[in-house]
Design a protein that fits this description.
The chain has 449 residues and is α/β, with parallel strands linked by helices. It folds into three domains: 81 residues, MurE/MurF, N-terminal domain (Udp-n-acetylmuramoylalanyl-d-glutamate--2,6- Diaminopimelate Ligase, Chain: A, domain 1, 3-Layer(aba) Sandwich), CATH 3.40.1390.10; 210 residues, UDP-N-acetylmuramoyl-L-alanine:D-glutamate ligase; 133 residues, Protein-Tyrosine Phosphatase, Chain A (Alpha-Beta Complex), CATH 3.90.190. It contains 15 helices and 20 strands. The strands form four sheets. Strands 7-8-6-9-10-11 form a six-stranded parallel sheet, with helices on both faces. It starts with 5 loop residues before the first helix and ends with a helix. The model has no long low-confidence stretch (mean pLDDT 96).
Length: 449
């Protein structure tokens, strides 16, 4: 692929290049901890000033710098008034210059990363790497978008109103998916779930005229989005019971994943995925529906869906001694995702089903109630025991009732005799929590001990 030199990028965005403008960065980086040799280091002014790390970036192999003033460093520098604005414009201009035939966007309160992976595999498409789904990560990825792509799949996340609108300004979409409108980040929305729906609906508003977006037919808030005047320029594609696109005969394959039949206007076909849980069937069906509606071959779609394997923290399954298993869902947590993963756990072989949960974040004044209700719902599903930690661990335990224990932090969960060491052999364990509580530490401890 041919990427832009520093001078070519500056010609698109503006600013002045000092030094060798023929340098071609292989990637962009805003963090010296993950910077790869050959990158352009973008010095952002945030909680810490990225300019203070520019020399370290060059020592680690950065071959160019994007800065807002010249630095006394022997390295080509692109000087702009505002490095964030330049970063976003760079990604926007690169996408416009080498735009694939079809650009897909994925958002949702639950499951957007898994659905992005499934959709990209179904299409054989380029995808935003990792979780680069915000107003920094998305343009960072797009700035080195390859030429000649048939399709690109972009994950779009948000925690406040207007973020997805900005992302669709950077990357206008031909097709979109909203996996679900849930309660994540509720504390940032004065209008509650309607406000969250409006923010997710910014993806629909950002579709090109005549664009198509898919959603679960059962999601009342997605139906609400479809009825809004600002969504009228795009076609809504409901997926589910009673619709032209849907799934049927879903069956758990235990640790091997799930199988189902995908129903389309062109006929039905079998799909087998390696991701465990009925929620992954829904994600795969959404991906298949929008891919086939966009003109992709059903057999190619099915093969792509079947090739996706769980990523760390997002449904990866580990066998543990005594015939048990650990379902690693530690990347993040919301009430909807916790219950979906608990249902997946109950389909797996092993002893009693238990959960180790870090507290959830950004739930606003209703956080205690939501944690209690989540604990009660886990008990009602059939989980046998609950280990909870973090600021709302007590609310989780109150909702769950007997056989739930609460700890203020991970260290207490790890060190107390009633903590992680009390989980019996052969158990099926779900480990999940918000990013803040780093529940992966619990998963690592359990797999080690």
């Amino acid at each position: 692929m041919r990427l832009w030199s520093l001078s070519e990028a500056a010609a698109q965005v503006g600013g002045e290049v000092l030094g060798d403008g023929a340098v071609v960065p292989s990637s962009l980086s805003m963090d010296t901890r993950t910077l790869q040799a050959g990158a352009c280091f973008v010095a952002l002014r945030a909680e810490r000033d990225g300019h203070a790390f520019a020399a370290q970036a060059v020592e680690q192999g950065a071959k160019a710098l994007l800065v807002d003033h010249p630095l006394d460093i022997d390295c080509p520098q692109w000087v702009v008034p505002d490095t964030l604005a330049a970063l976003q414009r760079w990604g926007q201009a690169r996408l416009a210059a080498v735009r694939p035939r079809a650009v897909f966007g994925v958002t949702g309160s639950v499951g957007k990363t898994s659905t992005k992976e499934l959709l990209a595999a179904a299409l054989g498409a380029w995808k935003t790497p990792g979780n680069r789904n915000n107003t920094l990560g998305l343009p960072e990825a797009l700035a080195t978008l390859p030429e000649g792509l048939d399709a690109a799949v972009l994950e779009m996340g948000m925690s406040t109103p207007g973020e997805i609108r900005r992302l669709t300004e950077i990357a206008p979409l031909d097709f979109g998916l909203i996996t679900m409108v849930g309660t994540a980040h509720a504390e940032n929305f004065a209008k509650g779930q309607e406000g969250i729906a409006e923010a997710k609906g910014e993806l629909v508003a950002g579709l090109v005229r005549g664009g198509v977006w898919g959603h679960l037919a059962s999601d009342a808030w997605c139906r609400w989005i479809a009825a809004q005047p600002w969504a009228g320029h795009a076609e809504a594609l409901p997926v589910g019971e009673g619709q032209a696109y849907g799934w049927e005969e879903a069956r758990s394959l235990g640790a091997a994943g799930e199988s189902f039949r995908m129903r389309t206007p062109q006929g039905a076909f079998p799909v087998r995925i390696q991701l465990p849980g009925e929620h992954q069937v829904r994600n795969a069906a959404l991906a298949a529906a929008i891919a086939i509606h966009a003109g992709y071959d059903p057999q190619r779609v099915a093969a792509g869906l079947g090739a996706v394997v769980p990523e760390p923290g997002r449904g990866r399954l580990h066998a543990i001694p005594g015939g048990g298993c650990l379902l690693d869902e530690t990347y993040n947590a919301s009430p909807d995702s916790i219950l979906a993963c608990a249902r997946a756990l109950l389909q797996l072989p092993g002893g009693e089903a238990v959960a180790v949960l870090g507290s959830m974040r950004e739930l606003g004044p209703e956080a205690s109630r939501i944690h209690r209700e989540t604990g009660a719902a886990l008990k009602a599903l059939g989980l046998a025991r609950l280990w909870a930690f973090g600021e709302f661990a007590g609310a989780y335990a109150d909702g769950f009732g007997l056989r739930a224990v609460a700890f203020p932090d991970f260290e207490a969960l790890r060190d107390d005799a009633a903590g992680l060491s009390a989980i019996p052999p052969g158990t099926r364990i779900l480990v999940k929590g918000s990013r803040y509580w780093r529940a992966e530490r619990a998963a690592d401890w359990l797999l080690t001990h």
